[in-house]
Each structure stands twice: as structure tokens, then as C-alpha cells.
């Protein structure tokens, strides 16, 4: 177990360093002058004075070699300082932490809804394998994946905000404002979770210990509840952790459409405006959390599944 | 479930589209009910402050539109001139000096008196910014100092009649000295306007309450919330649902639905933006005026405005919109004339040796369609064109260095101040810092230089019109369509006046009738 944790800690450090370096390079490998992008994000319009470009470049130390700039950021970060945003000149941490809280709330609600849908549909499909209900659930589940978020979100706004006036069309003002974004974001993981639960359940239903339990005279309902469902839901833990990590930085479209001030939008703005410290801070937090979560999921999976525990040991 | 969920969505969509198509006819916009002083409203703005609340940045626009920030002078579009605001009068006391007399009895929302010292502190903060505002930078303003308690002197490096215009720029909004702490600017409770900001949700919204002691009279709303909604479709939806009372910058795609909604009024005004086909005058074949005129004759601007812009833009008659005080008198939209275009091409000795390239910048989604229309128009006269879609940042170095054929872009002529001098200088003079057309004409430069020192507005505007005529005669670019500022307001909103530049939205007289 200690070896496992040590490996994952090393992976965390490497992943964070790698991600922060890649983000650091983005403004330099994409077309255009990063300093002009920073200025353009602060002052509308295209006609920018060369003197302003040179002054800001010198002020931010952007004339230094790339490796010097990167090491400077790394040194500050190691001491817990994410630096100042190039565009707002306020501490990056002051922007990242509120955005992280918003996104965490959104992701937790999304995964809870997705898991709930998946448990109900996955179990129902598995218990009705090959029948009409199973086929219908599989088809609906596939339809969830096929509907792109940028299409589904406006459609739901049309129906529930404009036509029925039962939900707000955008914002992050309370539980009702979370309903539509969560509904849109939950469909895709719900589909994947449903398939995973269904497969897990079918595997568990065919397991020898289940057959043996039935042979010992346990009722079908009792067998399913005690021996099939707990094992059938195991894949959800790892899958949910992976989706958690993905959604942390991957809900940009939804955050823009629903005006949610989360991490996706922060990251998007950071990259768009060449705000390197902001983008780096956001990425490091997202990647760090992703590695931590997948590690935690593996640990939980190991605790629940003796075979996994044995393999790590 | 598989069929019912998508079906319900489809039914909702079809129902909505049907309503839009049928069109509820009712007259929108006029409420006969009395204003309710307890009402608060919501304004959907298209951008959030990027640079915290730094006055030299775009954040000043948000503070100004929300009725917090006020300037010494103000540009009144209906009168077409600079009018008093925090300053009651101003005069040029020497070639390089202007004195502004402050309005007496004005207090900041924190109780401090508005005096010359406070104004100097605020303006100096903008001058000292690491990225100064173009309207008020050390390049155009040498010094600001207090002459006495009520007089502020602004000194310029060269003679300039435009100082009162510069002090109408939102970037020169005045905050109380208490707003400046270290490197940060805190506008909360430190403005002079009819509304005082009380709370902020970063990237989300700004909440304001009525300023009970406003110098300009009774404020008719209890407060307001400015929401930062970047997605145009969301802004459109919010004014329809009533979640917002005002939605700024409505996309063309949302117009039909709003215009058929009896509870919403759509407001349109000429904006100082003209979608333009920039031609590289420094590179063959565009270095020949006959060729440039041929391109202009080949294009069907009426069809372009009607198709791509769905009627939400007006075919351009030159570099200025017809409603601008410096518009070229009698200017007409060039009509498509294929035969004339072919003759001009022959006269220019043009041979289609290579396809010409149009760059459509991706930041403006409609430019890809505009480029396609132009491609077809030019093909009809024998000019092959290929289209490149690229990010602006990616093409900027080539545009500035003259390594391109044509590019579609649009510029805000009044982005710095309520006068086009900055635009006409930067974009078209021989030494212009943003001369994408790589145009150079001594007569034009002379007109602009003369305008830059002409104090009388009428005379200056006449010079701008003459300079614009030179641009038109030389077919420097093809000015395609004048874009319109489109806002939408709920019909129970009262005394709302549209500002095409979205500088002034919440005003003391803005009101809402009781529900």
C-alpha cells in the first residue's frame, strides 16, 4: 500500500509539472504576440501602441528566456504562491479558489444525478437482459451520448425557461439555477455509468458465488440485493473518479452558456488572454485534483475488492 | 422514455418557432403605469471586468454603464457635442493647457467632497497605469494638476482641441481618493453616480443600490444587478423570460424571436463600426486604384446586408455611418456594376495570375459567410479568390507588415474618445500605427493634421468628411456594412435611452413600473 501511495505521489508531481509546463508554452506556440493578447484583453480594440507592448513585456519579465520565466513561476509555486494574474493583477488563488468551489459543486451534483440514473437504469437493464426493457434502456442511454451539450443546453432553456418558465435560463444563484446545467452535464456520464452498471451486474449475476447462494436456497431478491448489486456497482467508483477529473476542467461550454463562473471558464479565459499565471494555476489545481481523485478511487476500489488489494500488495 | 423526452423538446421548440413566425403584434416599449421607486432591475452585459476594476481598462465601461462612474464631461449623442457632467465649464487657457471647473456640491458616495485634489488623484492613477488607456495616456496628456479647490488643469504635449473629449472617456471616470489603495482600485462606495456598487460576484454580477444623495436629483430605481453573460443566446433568452430587464448586444440570430415578443422592445442604433474589406494598398494588384475600384464595383453590398446580416446592418456608403456628424454629404452606397468592374480590371491591366486571398478572422463568425459572398462576386468579374479563416492574433503580424491581400475586419471609430481623430490617424495616415491598408496620401495626412488642431467641432467634422472623401475616391478599402447596436428591453422599463457604445445604461431617470 505504501509503495502504491509513493508511486501515485510521484505521478502527481510529474503530472502537475508536465501540465504546468505545457500550459506555460501555449501562448508561445500559438500564433500571435502574447503581450498584445494580454493588452487586448485589458483594453478593447486592436490598435495597440508598441511602447505599451514593450513596457508591459519588461514589467512582467516576458523578455526573459522561457526557462527563466518557468523556473521563476515554479519557485513561487513551491512556496505556495500562485502569483498575480497578468490581466487583473490580483492573486491567482483569489480567482481559482471560488471558481473551484463552483465547479466542485457542479461536478458533485452532476455525478450524483448521473449515478442515480445509472443505478436505476443499469440494474433494470441487467435484470431484464435481452428483453424489451433492456433494449429500450440501451437505446436511451446511447441517445444521451449522441446529444451534444451545445445543442441540448439551448433546447432545455427553450423548454424549461422560455416556454414553461419553471427554471432560470442562466446564472449560479441557487439550487434551481443548477438544474439545467446539471441535467445537460449528467447525461453523458449517466450513459457510460449505465453501461458499466449493467455489465457489472451481469458479471455478478453469472458469478459462481451467486449461483451457490441461490443453490443454498436464498431468494432471488435477497441474492441480488446482497451479492449482485454491491459487486455490480463496483465499476462506478473508478468510472466516477475519471469523470470527476474530466468534468473539473471540461465543462467550458456549459459554463459559458449558463454563465457559471467555474474552472472551465477561468481556464478558457486564461488561455485566451495569454494570462499564463492564471491558466497555470487553474491547470495545476485541476490536474492535481484529478490525480488525487483517481488515486482515492483506486484505494476505495481496493478496499471494496480484495482482488485489487491483493494485486497492489 | 426514449421517444418522449426528445419529443417534448421538439414540441417546445416547434411551439416557440411557431409563435415567432406568427408574430405577436402588440406595440412594445411604452408603459402607462407610474414608476415604482422600490423596483430593481437586471441588466445583462456581454462582458465581465477582466482587469479587476482598473480605470484604464474595460472595467471602466462596466462602472459607467452601471451608473456608478462619472466623468468631468460627457458626450451627448442627441446633441452631437460634449456637455457638462462633473465639470460645469472648461476653457483652453493656453496652447497646451485646459482648465476644468468642477461642479460644486458633489459628494462621492463615501461622503468625501469632489474637489480638484480628488480629481487629480483619480486621473493621475490612469496616467500612471502600466497599460494606459489610449484616451488618456502620457502620449496625449502631459500633466494634471489642481489650480484651486474647484479647478483642474490638464496640460498636453502638443496643442489639442480634443481634451474635453478625452475627459468624456469612461477611462477618465472619477473615484474618491479612498478608492486607491496600493495597486488596486476599489469602486465600492467611491463613485459619484446615481448608483453605488454594494457587492460583486466575480465573473458573474455586480449589485448596486440607489445613491440617496445623488447630485443629479432623485434616482428612480431602488437598485440594479449587472450580470456578465458572454453568450448572446443566453442574453436573448433572459430578456424574453423577464429574468433581465435590459439585454445588451443582441445577436442577429435572436432578433426574430425578440421582435415578435410583445413584452420586449428591440432597440437599434447605428454603431460606430463598419465591417470592412481591407485591401493591402501596398501590394499588387491592390496598389492600383483602378483595381481597387473594380473590386468595389464587383460587390453587391445590398445583397450582403440582406443575406448575411439578415437586415440587421445597413449597406455602407463609405468609411462613416450616415448618422455621424462627420459623414460624407450625399454619399451613396456603391451599387454593383459588373460591366464597370470588368472595364476597370482591363484598364488596370489585371490578369488572374494567382488567386487572391481573403482572410476572415474567426472571432467574427459572420465573416466566413461575408467572404463567401465576396468570393462569388469577384469570381463573376474574373478575379479568383481563396478564403482563409484565421484567428486575429495569428494574422496580426502579417497585417501590420503588409504581407496579405485582403482581410475582413471592423473597427470601432470611437473606441478612444467620441471623436474619430484617433481612428483616422492610426488607420490611414502614412505614419499610422494601425494602417492595415498601408495607404499613404499627403493630402489626406494634411487634412487630419489640420483637424487635430481645429477647435471648432463643425469645422473639424468637415475636415473629417473631406478626409473620408479622399479614402472613398481612392477606394482604399471597401466599406461593406454599417453595423447596428442592438439591445432589448422589457416594455415596463421607463426612460431608457439606448447608447450604441453601452457607456450609459443605468441613469437616475431609469425607472420601472410596478407589477
UniProtKB/TrEMBL annotation, chain B:
- List the signal peptide residues: 1-23
Organism encoding this protein:
Arthrobacter globiformis (strain ATCC 8010 / DSM 20124 / JCM 1332 / NBRC 12137 / NCIMB 8907 / NRRL B-2979 / 168)
What domain of life is recorded for the organism?
Bacteria
Q: What is this protein called?
A: Putative ABC transporter substrate-binding protein
Can you cite a GO biological process for this protein? Answer: peptide transport
Enumerate the PROSITE patterns for this protein.
PROKAR_LIPOPROTEIN (PS51257)
Q: Which Pfam families does the record cross-reference, listed alphabetically?
A: SBP_bac_5
Cellular component GO terms held in the UniProt record: ATP-binding cassette (ABC) transporter complex; periplasmic space
A Gene Ontology molecular-function term? peptide transmembrane transporter activity
Solute-binding protein family domain residues are 81-434
For this UniProt record, give its keywords in alphabetical order, as a comma-separated list.
Signal
